[in-house]
Amino acid sequence: MSWNPRRRGSYGGLFAGFGFAYLPAVFTVPVTFMALQLDSFGQGLSGMIGFGVAVWTIVLSVFAVQANNNFSTGRAIAALFIPLAVFFILLLAFIAFVVVVIVIAVNEGFT
């Protein structure tokens, strides 16, 4: 069995799709360095360009997952964002646990 990036759901196809999706992010680095030399208008413009590139990268990532796995658009969005949502929920649960432990330790005087 040879490697074919056009197969349904292959790692190579997904890797290639994400490579093309994140390619526009490369252009934010020179824009950011140029904005450091400019006034606040240039920095604001750099921020807007960076935001636009981030949104465009997310859209292209959805298209990459959609095309690689033959998913609908909603399923591709879910495939990208459900793991991220689970990570943030677990992170918030961990932070809440640490805060509770600190509060208990402070109230009991570390005994």
TrEMBL record:
Family annotation (Pfam families): Yip1 (PF04893)
Q: Which residues form the Yip1 domain?
A: 7-93
Which family does the entry's similarity section mention?
Belongs to the YIP1 family.
Q: Which UniProt keywords apply?
A: Membrane, Transmembrane, Transmembrane helix
Q: Where is this gene product found?
A: Golgi apparatus membrane; Membrane
Q: Which residues form a coiled coil?
A: none
Name the predominant localization: Golgi
Topology in membrane: Multi-pass membrane protein
One Gene Ontology term, aspect cellular component: Golgi membrane
Name of the protein described by the UniProt record:
Protein YIPF
Indicate the transmembrane segments per the record. Answer: 12-33, 45-65, 77-106
